[in-house]
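Assess this:
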Amino acid sequence: MKNQIKVIILPLYYSNSKYNIYEYNKTNKNHLEIVKADELLSDLSNNFNISQIDIIGGEISLLSDFYFDMLYNLCKIYSKKINVYTNFIKVNKSIINNCTSLNVICNFNEFNTDIEQVFHNINATDKTINLKSLDISCIKNPDKIIGILNNTNIKSFEIIPSRFINFKSYEFFENVVKIYLDKVKLMKFAFQNKLQLDNVLPIDNYNTEKIFITPDGKYALQQFIDNKPDLLEFDNILNLKEELDKMEKISTVYCKKCNSKLVCMSNYFFDMSYDNVSCCGFKNLIEQYKQRSK
């Protein structure tokens, strides 16, 4: 039986904003070639079960309509579930035409013309909008943020962990989520973090390996150097699978004693040495949520 994976396609690195989920090689102007994307997806499909494909960036609204049409239609060949992420500062016609829903990345630390344009574009579209923001952007003025979101055309809101991951940021993310959990009754939208905590199940967990496809036409896995994320690239699928095997062995050793093993909220995995604080599966948050729900 093939192992399940999620594929994250980065068709470009550069952006029209300094706020992105993935900020690798921002000076790299390369675009992923569609023929190469097809080749890489085909190899992945032959070796794994692709549960979903995320098209992110950089900022994908900077792609031409023709390019995005080709990329999106290619992805539909390999997966029934395709997630598209944009900062929505700029509206790309092809993205709007192809997608019934959009994941919009928003930075609440910068209440400027960009964020005004983002909310204008959100309210002007009939697409389903799922808003996402890093925890560091959500810590100040949560009541103000919830008030703003209640007046926008969004379906859901999710707080996502900071990209600079270490044991302190685990606690930071957990504490920010808890602040918003206490304010759920004020929300006119779905709070995605609560839904995740309500449905921490083996069939819907975040432990599925995430394999990146870079603008340079290579496979990659996320790694952490000095607690900062980077991409480790691979020229062929054999080397990729060898690295995945190593990661699985490390994960098995680290997680074997955990009560939430394989039913956690892990976005990433990397070698950790601090067992008593929390982890990338946010086990403390899960346990505390279970207690408060009793």
Notes: The chain has one domain: 4-293. The chain has ten helices and ten strands. The two ends are 38 Å apart (CA to CA). Strands lie at 4-9, 49-55, 82-86, 101-105, 128-134, 156-160, 190-191, 209-213, 219-225, 228-234.
